[in-house]
Amino acid sequence: MTTVPIPDFPAGFRWGVSTSAYQIEGATGADGRGPSIWDTFAHEPGRIVDGSTGDEACDHHHRYAEDTALLAGLGVSAYRFSIAWPRVQPTGAGPANAAGLDFYDRLVDGLLDAGVDPVATLFHWDLPQSLEDAGGWLNRDTAARFAEYADLTAARLGDRVKLWITLNEPFIHMTLGYGLGTHAPGRMLLFDSFPVAHHQLLGHGLAVAALRARTTSPVAIANNYSPVRRIGDTDADRAAARAYDALHNQLFTDPLLGRGYPDAPGFDPTVVRDGDLDVVAAPIDVLGVNYYNPTGIRAPEEGSPLPFEMVPLDGYPRTAFDWPVAPDGLRELLGQLHERYGDALPPIQVTESGCAYDDAPDADGRVHDPERIAYLDGHVRAVHEAMAEGVPVTGYFVWSLLDNWEWAEGFTKRFGLVHVDYPTQRRTPKSSYAWFRDLIRR
Q: Which residues carry out catalysis (predicted)?
């Protein structure tokens, strides 16, 4: 980490932190909440590395006031959380569950009282199990159900939520949940999972219309992006890099911004009906960008079912997830989006940026995480560099406020600015919490 001060950001730049419902809330049986695909998946033997579930997670459902105080102490201007669809609609259909929405009412009011803008994500992968039983995102009807859920939620919270995000990382949900089966719902369809992409985007567009009818707050989507680093210089390597870039970085953005679908692997036009692309391209106010690392790509071995091979990138420090720490990749990515989409690109907010390390309290009970501080320092500087080059970035959210239940990795990976001792649920702010607090104050 450099000792040179981080340059000043403009007044009004949004500093925040992010979480998601299933990873922190717990209380999976409270408020009449129905089961989600992650409840089902996590309870299947062998699915989660440490055999844990999100049944309790960080117990945020009961400790939200304590966590709101942590947000206030951090000084963030915004908190990005997700709303659990099965807490609002236990089966994914029908009227709103008032008790479930009551929880988010209390959370939103508490945030506003603390001077923190509520930023609500409607879908962070916890699809109601009843909808999955009917086909999940492979079923076009799920898009309509999602719009209904958006309407019910905005009817209750639309007067106070300051930014709405429809979907979180639809590429990751499609790829890991339906393509490779390592996430819920655990399907292994490879490129036959393309309908999941289209139906998520269709649901997004329908939800945008539902939100516009209920609130004047801005609307966004949060996509995961990864700049491609080509390994090798053959025509086959270049073709592999183009294919991966189209799949990861363009498939969920080109149609959003009115360009239709790119020539991506597995693209299946038969699920796209007349008028769908107009719905998908409903104007958005913000593009959420989630960035963790670039991806090394080369031509695949002969006989591979994929048109590319992912290759580890050398020469970078590694996180506990074994991901390369590459702040330059964030600057590169932001510049690529600006160059690729030009005037069609709405303002960007970096809605996730973070790293996992094996943090633990020392003998005095303090948690020092200098590697996370170095990571954040580099990535904040990368955002500033991109802004200096003309990229319209208006916010940066750290993933995550709390150590949490990290999907298929269970409790084995810690991303938080705040350490959580899971047996006791004790929260301990790490040194990165103090670093980020001081950055925001300055």
A: 169 (proton donor), 352 (nucleophile)
